[in-house]
């Protein structure tokens, strides 16, 4: 079934997605303290795969992709679901979740910079202002008063999450040029399947068989991250994208870092210092300006 939702239902579902994604950064931070990053990403992906198999079969969206859609399946599976997930998980071992999510959501800024560099899009004044604001926020969060530059692990964590954001940006740039045969929702299971197999192979080679000390708390964290933060969120966002204007979803997703910062403070006790608040405001504001600049093109 590919029917759109009523605007009110789509908006409510969108809020659920933003909250689920925001909280998922704190959940991932907790998971990587107990399980190595590759196995964290892999186990979560297996849970998401099982859930999506049920969801997509029940909704009639389970198909075999055409050859023309294989590149986009591989692009999303490798750049976003594999590299982005692993780099974020690895980076969060050394970086607070609140700072990690702000760095991770610099993705639209890298998309704008790359599009301007290859001249596939024109960087007007509004978008330039958005990119400048985002880069200023990046400088604020990376300054020595905010991050301990004497700790190489902290610097490596920040670098990994910025690299994750760049991988996500590369995926977005490819998606924009892809000519879809099936819908993104119909290809979702295959993207997760490829990512799951790659993640598991990487984990076995790099970290060996999983040595996990299971507890009810750890199991609940994995269930949340795999089922709610990944499978349900991906499905819900596909439904939202079909039901709400693109500008609404672009601006709405800027709420995810805010939710992430607040949830990290509430769930993990991470402080919200001045540098973090200023950086978040600049980066979120920059993304909002870039989204508004894209509005005429979307229309």
Computed structural class: mainly alpha
Order of helices and strands: HHHHHHHHHHHH
Low-confidence runs of at least 5 consecutive residues: none
Work out the number of β strands.
0
What does the overall shape look like? globular
- Our Rg estimate from Cα atoms comes to 19 Å
The largest sheet, given as strand count, sense and whether it forms a barrel, is: none
Q: What proportion strand?
A: under 5%
The residue fraction in helices comes out at: over 70%
Gap between N and C termini? 26 Å
Q: Helical segment tally? A: 12
Arithmetic mean of pLDDT: 92
Please describe the structure with a list of short key phrases separated by commas or semicolons.
299 residues, globular, 12 helices, mainly alpha
Structure description:
The chain is an all-alpha fold and 299 residues long. The protein is 77% helix and 0% strand. It is built from twelve helices and no strands. It has helices spanning 7-32, 37-58, 70-91, 97-104, 107-117, 125-142, 152-177, 184-207, 216-243, 246-252, 255-268, 274-298. It is globular. The model has no long low-confidence stretch (mean pLDDT 92).
SSE topology:
Elements: H1 7-32, H2 37-58, H3 70-91, H4 97-104, H5 107-117, H6 125-142, H7 152-177, H8 184-207, H9 216-243, H10 246-252, H11 255-268, H12 274-298
């Amino acid at each position: 079934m590919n029917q759109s939702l009523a605007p009110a239902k789509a908006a409510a579902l969108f809020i659920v997605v933003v909250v689920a994604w925001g909280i998922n950064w704190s959940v991932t931070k907790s998971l990587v303290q107990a399980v190595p990053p590759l196995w964290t990403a892999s186990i979560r992906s297996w849970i998401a795969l099982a859930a999506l198999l049920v969801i997509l079969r029940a909704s009639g969206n389970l198909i075999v992709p055409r050859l023309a859609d294989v590149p986009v399946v591989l692009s999303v599976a490798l750049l976003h679901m594999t590299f982005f997930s692993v780099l974020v998980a690895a980076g969060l071992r050394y970086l607070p979740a609140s700072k990690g999510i702000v760095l991770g959501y610099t993705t639209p800024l890298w998309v704008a910079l790359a599009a301007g560099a290859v001249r596939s899009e024109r960087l007007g004044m509004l978008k330039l202002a958005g990119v400048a604001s985002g880069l200023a926020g990046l400088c604020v969060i990376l300054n020595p008063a905010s991050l301990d530059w004497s700790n190489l692990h902290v610097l490596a964590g920040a670098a990994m999450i910025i690299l994750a954001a760049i991988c996500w940006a590369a995926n977005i740039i490819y998606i924009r040029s892809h000519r879809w045969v099936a819908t993104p929702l119909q290809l979702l299971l295959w993207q997760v399947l490829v990512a799951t197999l790659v993640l598991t192979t990487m984990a076995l080679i790099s970290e060996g068989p999983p040595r996990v000390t299971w507890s009810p708390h750890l199991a609940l964290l994995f269930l949340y991250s795999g089922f709610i933060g990944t499978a349900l969120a991906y499905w819900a966002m596909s439904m939202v994208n079909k039901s709400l204007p693109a500008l609404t979803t672009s601006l709405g997703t800027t709420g995810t870092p805010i939710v992430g910062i607040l949830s990290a403070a509430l769930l993990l006790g991470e402080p919200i210092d001045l540098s973090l608040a200023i950086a978040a405001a600049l980066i979120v504001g920059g993304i909002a300006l870039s989204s508004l600049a894209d509005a005429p093109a979307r229309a």
